[in-house]
UniProtKB/TrEMBL annotation:
Top-level taxonomic group: Bacteria
PANTHER family in the cross-refs: GLYCOSYLTRANSFERASE (PTHR43685), SLR2126 PROTEIN (PTHR43685:SF3)
Record keywords: Membrane, Transferase, Transmembrane, Transmembrane helix
Source species of the chain: Nocardioides anomalus
Any one GO MF annotation of this record: transferase activity
Transmembrane segments: 413-432, 476-504, 525-544, 585-613, 625-645, 683-699, 706-728, 740-763, 775-794, 939-960
Protein name per its UniProtKB record: Glycosyltransferase family 2 protein
Pfam families per record: Glyco_tranf_2_3
Length: 968
C-alpha cells in the first residue's frame, strides 16, 4: 500500500473504529521484543493495550510492564487457560473504562506487520457484515512460508488451512476470503460478538479454541473473513514444542487431537452424532496405523488417548451441544460450504503413503551415498572417487555397449559367487519335499496347525500339557502364511535358502568390518572366501544334514545381527537407536532357535557397557551411547515372553538352554568346537583344522592385531562357556540331553573367519620366500570352502528322509486324525530291557510339538497304568485308556511276546490288524473320551500373546526409517 494511501486509511479509521489490543503472554521473552516492536509500529491507532501474563518464569511480565506500564499488565497464575486469560483482559478493559468496538487478540509469539491492523480495519470497512477478521499467518522466522489463510475442520478432525505443504507467499492470495475460522493470533473481533458468544470455550484451554469460536460464530449468523493484506508472523511455539506449559504438558499432539475431536462432536449439527463418534473411533484406529507406519508410536497413543478423553465424558459433550444448539440461528446448508470437503481426508491418506515411500527411498539413497563416500575416502583411485561428469558419461556408454552379461562374465568374483550359490542350491536337493531327520520332526499337514500350536495355552498332545510352543514356531507360521503353502514347503524354503542367505549376510558384514579395520577395506576375493566359508559352517558341522532347522536359521541370521550391531558405533543418535531396534529384533529371531544367544549377548553387552563407563566416564550422561545396546537386549524378553514365562511356570525351564529340534542333540567338546563340528557329524574333521590355524597366523600383522584379538576373545569366550556347559546334563521326563551349544559353535566359527579376513588386511605385500608362503596359505585357505562345498553337493544331506510313522498301521494314522480322542498308545522295548511309551494323536509328532512333549512333565498316573497293562492288565485299565482318549495300543516290531500275550487276554481289547506280522495291535472296545485332555484356557498366555503382537508391531515400526512430515 503506498504511503499516501496508508495515511488516508489511517485518518479514515481514526475516531470511527476503536480498537483495543489484548496480548497474552507466557514465557515469551525470546519473542516479545519483536512483538512489542511490531505493535508499536502499527499505522492504525489503538485506544488501549492490555497485556495478560500467565505466570511467566522469565522476564516476560517485566517487558510488558516496561512497554505499557504496570497498570495495563494483568498477572494471572500459570494454570490460567487462554480463554480465561482473554476474559481477564476484557474485564480489565471494562475496569479501566475502555469501550472499544473491536478487540485485536495477539499471542506473545505472533509479530504483526506494521500494516496488519490497518489492513484488517480496511477489510472490515469493505465488508460491514464481517464480525471476525483474521490475518494471513506466515512462519516466523522464515517470514515467507505460509502457515494459515483461514482454517476449517475436516470430517475426521483434521485442521485444514487450504494451503499446500511448504507453500510460500508469492502474492497468489489477494482477495479476502469467507472462512469458518481464523487463528486467535491476530484475530480482530467485534466486542459485542465476543460477549454474545461467551468468549472462548474453557473446554479448549490452549488448542482448537479458534476453530470452535469460528464455528459458533458462523452458526450464530456472524461472518468470518481472512484479509490477505494483513500479515502476522507466527512462531507457533506451543504447537512446535518450543515451550511447554502446565496446560500443554509433554503431549502436544494429544491436546491438539482432543481439541479437534471435541470441536467436531460439539458443533456438529447432525442428530446422528453418536454414529459420527463411532466413525471417528475407526478413523482413530486407522490414524494410529498411519502413525505406526511412520515410526510415531507416541502420536498413535496420543490419538487413542484423545478420543477416549472426549467420549469418556458424554455429559460435558451433551452440555456443549445443547448450548450450541440454543445459539444456532443458521441452517446446516449454510455451514457446510465452510467445512472441509469430504474427499480431503482420502487425499491426506495418499499423502501419508507417499511420505512413507519417500522416507524409504531417502533412507536407501542415504545408505548408498554413505557407502560411496566411504569407498572414495578409502581408495582415492576407486570408481566412486574419480567420477567427473565426462568420465561418468563415458562409463555409462561402455556399460550400455558391453551389456550386463559381458560385465558379469568378465568379473571372476561374480562368476564364482554365482557358481557357489548354484552349488549350494544343488546340494540342498535332499531338503525338497516332506522331509524329516534326526533333528527334525515332520512338518504338520496344515499351516494353521502351527498357528494353533503357537496360540494355544493347552495342547492336546500326548496326555495333554500346558508347556508353551517353542518360539521358532511363530516365524515358521508367518513364513508358511506368507508363502501361502504347506508347512513342509516352509521347512524346505528354510533349509534350501538359509545357506545362500547367510552367505549374503556374511558378505555385507565382512565388507563393513573390513572398512572399520583398515581404510581400504577388504577386497572382493577375501570377502568371497570369508562369506562362503562361514555360510558352509551349518553344512559341514552336520546341523543341516540332520535337519536341525533352528541352528540353521540362527546361522543365516547371525551375520545380519552382527551387521546391525555395528550401527551402535554410528555417529548419529537416530541411527544408533534404529540399530538398537533392528539388533533386538534379529537377536530375538536368533534366540528363537538357539536360546543361549541371548545369554551370550547379555554377557557381552554387560562387559562392553562396564568397560565403556570405566574408560569413558562422561558416557553415562549420553543416553544415546549406552541406551541402544540395553534396548536391544531388553527387546528379546518382551518379544519372547509367551515362551519364557509359561515355560518357567510349567516346569519346562530346561528349554531355555536347549536348541530347537528333536532331542537329544549332539554336543561338541572343546576340540570339536574349534573344528566346527558336532559330535561325529558333518564333513571330515581334517577339513576344520585349516581355519583355526589361519586364525592363529592372523595375530601376526600389527596393523590389524587389535581387531583380530577381539575376534579371538569372542571365540575363546564361546569355547569357555561351551566347556562349562558341556559337563551339564538336562534330565527331562522322557530323555536326558546336554544343553544346546549350536550358537556357541556358530559364533566361534564366525569369529575365526572374521579374524582371518581382518588379519589378511594387515599383511603388507610380501616378497621372495614370503610371497611363496603367502601363496601356500592362500591355496590352503581356498581348500576350506571348495572342499566343504564339494562335500555338501555329494554327501551333505544323506540323513534327511521322508519316512515317518514307522511301525504304525496306516488306518490307525487316519483314525487318529479324526480327533484327539482317537489316540494311539505305542509301546516299545521289552519287559526285561524296559518299556517306553508314547501317545500319538492327530497327524503325529510334528515340528514344534516334539519339544512340547519332551518338556512336558511325566504323568505318573498314566505311567502306572502302562505298567499295569504290561504286567497284569485289567478291564479297569482299559476303561482308563478310553477315558484318556486312547483308541489303539500298538507294539511295533519286534513286539515283546509276554506283553502281547497279556494284552490278548484282556477284556475290552480287540486284536487289530497290522501290516507287519511282527507288529501287534489292539483296539480299545470302550466309549472314547477327551475330557481329560481339555486343560482350559490361560488368560496369562492371552495377555502375553497380545503384548507380543503389539511389541512386534512396535519394533518393526521403530526399525523403519523416520519421516520429516509434521503433524497438525
Amino acid at each position: 500500500m503506498p504511503a499516501t494511501d496508508r495515511r488516508r486509511a489511517a485518518e479514515g479509521t481514526r475516531g470511527r473504529e476503536d480498537v483495543a489490543v489484548l496480548l497474552v503472554s507466557h514465557d515469551g521473552e525470546r519473542w516479545l521484543p519483536t512483538v512489542l516492536e511490531g505493535l508499536a509500529g502499527q499505522l492504525a491507532p489503538v485506544v488501549a493495550t492490555v497485556a495478560v501474563d500467565t505466570g511467566s518464569k522469565d522476564r516476560s511480565a517485566d517487558l510488558l510492564a516496561a512497554a505499557y506500564g504496570e497498570e495495563w499488565v494483568v498477572r494471572e497464575p500459570s494454570s490460567t487457560a487462554f480463554p480465561a486469560a482473554l476474559r481477564a483482559g476484557l474485564a480489565h478493559l471494562d475496569a479501566r473504562g475502555v469501550d472499544a468496538e473491536w478487540v485485536w487478540v495477539l499471542h506473545d509469539d505472533a509479530s504483526p506487520h506494521p500494516e496488519a491492523l490497518l489492513a484488517l480495519l480496511a477489510g472490515a470497512a469493505d465488508d460491514p457484515d464481517a464480525a471476525v477478521l483474521g490475518p494471513m499467518l506466515r512462519e516466523w522466522p522464515s517470514l515467507k512460508r505460509l502457515l494459515e489463510f483461514g482454517v476449517t475442520l475436516s470430517g475426521t478432525g483434521h485442521r485444514e488451512t487450504g494451503l499446500e505443504r511448504g507453500e510460500y507467499d508469492q502474492g497468489q492470495y489477494s482477495e479476502p476470503k469467507h472462512v469458518l475460522a481464523v487463528n486467535t493470533a491476530g484475530m480482530l473481533v467485534r466486542r459485542r460478538v465476543l460477549d454474545e458468544l461467551g468468549g472462548l470455550d474453557d473446554e479448549l484451554p490452549v488448542f482448537g479454541n479458534d476453530l470452535d469460536f469460528g464455528w459458533r460464530a458462523a452458526a450464530a449468523g456472524h461472518r468470518t473473513v481472512v484479509v490477505p493484506q494483513a500479515v502476522v508472523f507466527h512462531a507457533e511455539a506451543a504447537h512446535r514444542g518450543l515451550r511447554r506449559t502446565p496446560l500443554t504438558g509433554r503431549h502436544t499432539h494429544y491436546q491438539e487431537r482432543r481439541a479437534a475431536l471435541f470441536t467436531l462432536l460439539a458443533n456438529s449439527a447432525s442428530r446422528a452424532w453418536p454414529l459420527q463418534a463411532v466413525r471417528l473411533f475407526f478413523g482413530t484406529l486407522l490414524r494410529m496405523l498411519g502413525f505406526v507406519a511412520v515410526r510415531a508410536p507416541g502420536q498413535a497413543l496420543d490419538d487413542l488417548a484423545a478420543y477416549v478423553s472426549v467420549v469418556a465424558k458424554p455429559g460435558e459433550l451433551l452440555a456443549a451441544r445443547r448450548a450450541r444448539a440454543q445459539a444456532r440461528t443458521v441452517g446446516r446448508e449454510e455451514l457446510d460450504p465452510l467445512l472441509a470437503p469430504r474427499w480431503l481426508p482420502y487425499r491426506h491418506g495418499l499423502d501419508a503413503v507417499s511420505d512413507l515411500a519417500t522416507a524409504l527411498t531417502q533412507s536407501a539413497t542415504d545408505v548408498a551415498e554413505r557407502r560411496r563416500a566411504a569407498q572414495a575416502q578409502a581408495d582415492p583411485s576407486s570408481f566412486a572417487a574419480r567420477r567427473t561428469e565426462r568420465e561418468r558419461i563415458e562409463d555409462e556408454d561402455v556399460v550400455e555397449d558391453t551389456g550386463l552379461v559381458a560385465r558379469f562374465l568378465t568379473n571372476p568374483v561374480a562368476v564364482l559367487l554365482a557358481v557357489a550359490v548354484l552349488a549350494l542350491l544343488v546340494g540342498a536337493r535332499p531338503a525338497l519335499g516332506h522331509v524329516s531327520g534326526p533333528g527334525l520332526s515332520p512338518a504338520p499337514d496344515r499351516w494353521t496347525d502351527w498357528w494353533s500350536l503357537h496360540l494355544s495355552s493347552w495342547h492336546e498332545l500326548g496326555l495333554g500339557t500346558a508347556v508353551p510352543a517353542p518360539p521358532y514356531v511363530l516365524p515358521l507360521a508367518l513364513l508358511a502364511t506368507v508363502l501361502g503353502a504347506s508347512p513342509a514347503a516352509a521347512v524346505t524354503a528354510v533349509l534350501v535358502l538359509a545357506v545362500p542367505f547367510s552367505l549374503w549376510g556374511a558378505w555385507r558384514f565382512l565388507r563393513v568390518a573390513g572398512r572399520l579395520a583398515t581404510p581400504g577395506g577388504a577386497n572382493r576375493w577375501l570377502i568371497l572366501w570369508g562369506a562362503s566359508t562361514y555360510a558352509l559352517v551349518p553344512v559341514v558341522s552336520g546341523a543341516w544334514g540332520q535337519g536341525r532347522i533352528a541352528p540353521v536359521l540362527s546361522a543365516a541370521l547371525l551375520p545380519w545381527l552382527a551387521h546391525a550391531a555395528l550401527g551402535f558405533a554410528d555417529p548419529e543418535a537416530d541411527r544408533r537407536w534404529r540399530a538398537a531396534w533392528r539388533t533386538g529384533l534379529l537377536l530375538a529371531l536368533v534366540t528363537c532357535g538357539t536360546p543361549l544367544a541371548w545369554l551370550v549377548a547379555a554377557l557381552v553387552g554387560v562387559v562392553v557397557v562396564v568397560l565403556a563407563f570405566t574408560l569413558l566416564p562422561g558416557i553415562g550422561r549420553d543416553r544415546s551411547a549406552w541406551g541402544p545396546p540395553v534396548v536391544a537386549l531388553a527387546v528379546v524378553p518382551v518379544l519372547l515372553a509367551p515362551w519364557w514365562l509359561p515355560a518357567l511356570l510349567h516346569g519346562a525351564g530346561e528349554g531355555l538352554l536347549l536348541d530347537g529340534g528333536r532331542w537329544p542333540a549332539p554336543a561338541p567338546d572343546g576340540w570339536e568346537l574349534a573344528l566346527g563340528r558336532f559330535h561325529d557329524l558333518g564333513a571330515p574333521w581334517w577339513l576344520g583344522v585349516v581355519l583355526p590355524v589361519l586364525a592363529l597366523l592372523a595375530l601376526g600383522p600389527r596393523r590389524t592385531r587389535i581387531p583380530v584379538l577381539i575376534c579371538w576373545v569372542v571365540a575363546l569366550l564361546c569355547a569357555v562357556v561351551a566347556a562349562l556347559l558341556g559337563h551339564v546334563t538336562l534330565d527331562l521326563a522322557a530323555l536326558s540331553t546336554p544343553p544346546g551349544l549350536a550358537f556357541l559353535l556358530l559364533t566361534g566359527q564366525a569369529a575365526l573367519v572374521t579374524a582371518v579376513v581382518l588379519g589378511a588386511l594387515g599383511v603388507a605385500r610380501p616378497g621372495g620366500l614370503l610371497r611363496v608362503g603367502a601363496v601356500v596359505l592362500a591355496a590352503a585357505a581356498a581348500v576350506v570352502p571348495v572342499a566343504g562345498l564339494a562335500w555338501f553337493v555329494v554327501d551333505g544331506g544323506d540323513e534327511l528322509a521322508t519316512d515317518q510313522d514307522a511301525g504304525i498301521p496306516a488306518y490307525m494314522v487316519q483314525s487318529s486324525q479324526l480327533g484327539p480322542e482317537h489316540g494311539i498308545l505305542v509301546l516299545r522295548g521289552s519287559v526285561e530291557d524296559g518299556l517306553t511309551y508314547t501317545v500319538r494323536r492327530d497327524d503325529g509328532v510334528t515340528t514344534g510339538e516334539d519339544e512340547v512333549l519332551d518338556l512336558a512333565g511325566e504323568d505318573r498316573g498314566f505311567t502306572r497304568l502302562v505298567q499295569g497293562l504290561a504286567a497284569r492288565p485289567t478291564p479297569e485299565s482299559v476303561d482308563s485308556l478310553a477315558a484318556r482318549g486312547i483308541e489303539y495300543v500298538v507294539l511295533p516290531a519286534p513286539a515283546d511276546g509276554q506283553v502281547a500275550a497279556a494284552l490278548d487276554a484282556t477284556a475290552g481289547l480287540q486284536q487289530a490288524s497290522a501290516e507287519d506280522r511282527s507288529t501287534r495291535a489292539w483296539q480299545v472296545d470302550q466309549p472314547l473320551s477327551d475330557d481329560q485332555l481339555d486343560g482350559g484356557r490361560s488368560w496369562l498366555r492371552v495377555v502375553l500373546l497380545v503384548v507380543q503382537a503389539l511389541a512386534v508391531l512396535a519394533v518393526l515400526v521403530l526399525c523403519a526409517p523416520s519421516t520429516e512430515r509434521g503433524q497438525r
